[in-house]
Design a protein that fits this description.
The chain has 246 residues and is an alpha/beta fold. It has helices spanning 14-17, 31-39, 53-67, 79-82, 91-104, 125-145, 175-188, 205-228, 231-245; strands at residues 7-12, 42-45, 71-75, 108-113, 151-155. It is globular, with a radius of gyration of 18 Å.
Length: 246
C-alpha cells in the first residue's frame, strides 16, 4: 500500500486564509498552500478571516488534530484586539496554548511572527501605542515558543517595506506577498525553494481610492460599532495608560 502524502493545514485568520476586504487570494495560492505545494503535500485550509485566537483554539485546532497534519501554518493574534470575543491582553497565552496543542500532537508549526501594522496604516498616536504593545506581547510569546525546534517563525515584517507585497487594502498580503511569505516559510522549514518571480507593480493610488469607495467605506461602517465597543481594546488601552503613568 502506498503511503499517503504528507499533510499541511492552515490555521488562524485572514493572513493565513487569504481573505481580504473586497478581494481574496485563493487557498492554494496562500503562503500555506504554496508551502504544501513545495512539500509535495496535501493541503487543507482551516483558517478563516477575522478569527481571534480563542476561536482558532476552540474550532480550528480540533479539526486540525483530527487530520493529524505534518505541518501547520498559523497566523493569529491581531484580531484579538479589534474583534468582539477577542482575548486582548490574554492573547499571548492563548496563542501559546494553541501552538502547544499542535506540538504535543507531533505537528511541526510554521507561525507568522507579527509585523507592526502601524507602519502600514496611520493610527492615532495613542491607538498606535496600544497596537504595538499588543504585537510585542504576542511576538515575545512566539520567540519563547521558537526555542522548540518544531516551531519555526515566519517573519511577516519581510513584507513591510515592499508595497508590491500588499493588497489594495494595505492590510493583507497580495498574491505576490503570499509568495514571498511562502519562500520564507519554505526556507525555514528546509523545503524545496518556492519560486517568487519578478515583483509586480504596486497598486496605484487610483486603485486604492476606487477600493476605498467600493469596499473600504462599507467595511468601516460595518466594523466601527464593533471597534467602538471592543472590550479587549479598552482593556489594552487601560494597560498601556497605566504603564505610561508609572
Amino acid at each position: 500500500m502506498t503511503a499517503a502524502a504528507p499533510l499541511v493545514v492552515s490555521l488562524g485568520d485572514s493572513f493565513a486564509s487569504g481573505e481580504g476586504v473586497g478581494f481574496r487570494t485563493v487557498p492554494p495560492a496562500t503562503w500555506a498552500g504554496l508551502v504544501a505545494e513545495a512539500a509535495g503535500a496535501r493541503f487543507v485550509a482551516l483558517a478563516r478571516g477575522g478569527a481571534p485566537s480563542g476561536k482558532v483554539l476552540r474550532d480550528q485546532v480540533p479539526m486540525a488534530l483530527a487530520l493529524d497534519p505534518d505541518v501547520a501554518c498559523v497566523c493569529v493574534g491581531l484580531n484579538d484586539l479589534f474583534r468582539s470575543g477577542g482575548a486582548g491582553s490574554d492573547t499571548a497565552p492563548g496563542v501559546t496554548a494553541l501552538l502547544q496543542q499542535l506540538r504535543d500532537a507531533g505537528t511541526v508549526v510554521a507561525v507568522g511572527r507579527m509585523h507592526d501594522p502601524t507602519r502600514l496604516v496611520r493610527f492615532p498616536a495613542g491607538l498606535a501605542r496600544v497596537v504595538r504593545a499588543h504585537v510585542h506581547s504576542i511576538n515575545t510569546a512566539l520567540d519563547e515558543m521558537a526555542r522548540d525546534p518544531g516551531v519555526v517563525l515566519v517573519d511577516l515584517s519581510v513584507l513591510i517595506d515592499r508595497p508590491e507585497c500588499w493588497a489594495v487594502d494595505r492590510v493583507h498580503p497580495s498574491d505576490f506577498g503570499h509568495r514571498v511569505l511562502a519562500a520564507e516559510a519554505a526556507r525555514r522549514l528546509t523545503l524545496p525553494h518556492v519560486k517568487v518571480g519578478p515583483a509586480p507593480d504596486a497598486s496605484p493610488a487610483a486603485a486604492s481610492w476606487r477600493w476605498f469607495a467600493r469596499h473600504g467605506i462599507p467595511w468601516l461602517a460595518q466594523r466601527l460599532p464593533e471597534l467602538a465597543t471592543s472590550e479587549p481594546l479598552r482593556r489594552r488601552i487601560s494597560q498601556v495608560r497605566e504603564k505610561a503613568a508609572v
